[in-house]
Design brief:
This protein has 193 residues and is mainly alpha-helical. The chain has a single domain (2-189), classed as Dehydroquinate synthase-like, alpha domain (Up-down Bundle). Helices cover 67% and strands 0% of the residues. It contains ten helices and no strands. The chain has helices at residues 2-10, 16-37, 43-62, 67-79, 83-99, 109-125, 134-145, 159-166, 171-174, 183-189. α5 runs antiparallel to α7 (134-145). The longest helix has 22 residues, at 16-37.
């Protein structure tokens, strides 16, 4: 789900077909992920997650990923958590930053308009009514899954460790991010909880 949200909302080079797959994957994950993580082995629930993975995979073949995904590699490599889970550690704050980005933070006005449209659709799909609350809502979803939901919980509990992780971005994936992050933004994403 995290990789799909990351791709859905932020990619500058995303095609219409990819958007369809991505939105379907987010909706399917929203309906089924909590049950699967909780141990539900109902065939319909498992099929829902399988369909979500299939659709997200199709989207990956078409589009590129962005900031949350770019940082996830370093988090996975240095803290041994699954890749999708690593995406979720930065996703709530990045999501909020993209949902509230102004024109000066985005590469150009067309990209800003496009980003706003995508964020609106995604927020509606995730039942997020106010952009400024997006990070809290996404963090609460992660808490409800019962998995480590912040950097402290995975062992990155010092400012030095967070600064190190902030420098571990995959720059190819980061280059597709439509919003420019300042040093202050990056500090916020990796702030001590």
């Amino acid at each position: 789900m995290a990789r799909t949200i990351d791709r859905k909302r932020l990619g500058c080079r995303v095609f219409e077909q990819s958007r369809g797959y991505e939105l379907e994957a987010v909706e399917l994950c929203g309906k089924n992920l909590k049950s699967v993580v909780g141990g539900d082995t109902n065939s319909l629930t498992l099929q829902g997650m399988s369909n979500a993975a299939y659709r997200a995979g199709n989207a990956i073949n078409i589009s590129k990923t962005t900031a949350a995904h770019a940082w996830s590699y370093g988090i996975t490599n240095h803290h041994g958590i699954p890749h999708g889970h690593a995406v979720w550690l930065t996703l709530p704050k990045i999501f909020k930053m993209h949902a509230t980005a102004d024109t000066e933070q985005v590469s150009d006005a067309r990209v800003h308009k496009h980003l706003q449209e995508i964020m609106h659709k995604l927020m509606k799909s995730l039942n997020i009514e106010v952009a400024e609350q997006a990070d809290t809502i996404l963090e609460n979803f992660m808490i409800s899954l019962g998995v480590p939901h912040n950097f402290t919980m995975i062992g990155a509990d010092t400012a030095e460790q967070r600064a190190f992780l902030a420098k571990q971005a995959n720059m190819e994936r980061m280059s597709n991010n439509p919003v420019s992050f300042t040093d202050r933004d990056i500090s916020e994403i990796f702030s001590l909880d």
